[in-house]
């Protein structure tokens, strides 16, 4: 499954950066690497969790902004605000990141069990199909991993 391979690749890159979770560079981001990893994993686990529990939802249209986001696969830096539910706490703890990564790997490996009709409703974009939700996870995670790589470069 192509989607599963992409997701596993992203989770592997997150895992690779865990030893640097305390590294910060205010010229790149006001948040540490740990914050970006924690946030990304909260998003992955949150979306996959909703998809697991929501096999036959009421479909609401995907907003134009959501369609453009998925098509172009780009998030401009510093323009979005994470919903509270996926915002890490002020103090990032290594064990929390590791546990979230384990949870994400487990959920990713069960991706094939999620109904194709499953939906996730994004607070800004509207309803995303399973395929669109996985694309969102990919774009979002790549965005934060790029920030992580830039923090390490500087």
Write the layout of secondary structure elements.
Blueprint: H1 2-17, H2 33-53, H3 64-72, H4 94-109, E1 119-122, E2 126-129, H5 130-153
Antiparallel strand pairs: 1-2
Largest sheet properties: 2 strands, antiparallel
**How many extended strands?**
2
Count of discrete alpha- or pi-helical segments spanning 4 or more residues: 5
What overall form do the CA principal axes indicate? Answer: globular
Beta percentage is: 5-15%
Distance between the termini: 36 Å
Radius of gyration from CA coordinates: 15 Å
Structural class: mainly alpha
Order of helices and strands: HHHHEEH
What portion of residues is helical?
A: 55-70%
- Unreliable runs: none
Largest sheet: spatial strand order: 1-2
What would the average pLDDT be, to the nearest integer? 90
Write up this protein:
Helix content is 56%, strand content 5%. The protein has helices spanning 2-17, 33-53, 64-72, 94-109, 130-153, and strands at 119-122, 126-129. The radius of gyration is 15 Å and the shape is globular. The protein has 154 residues and is mainly alpha-helical. Strands 1-2 form a two-stranded antiparallel sheet. It contains five helices and two strands.
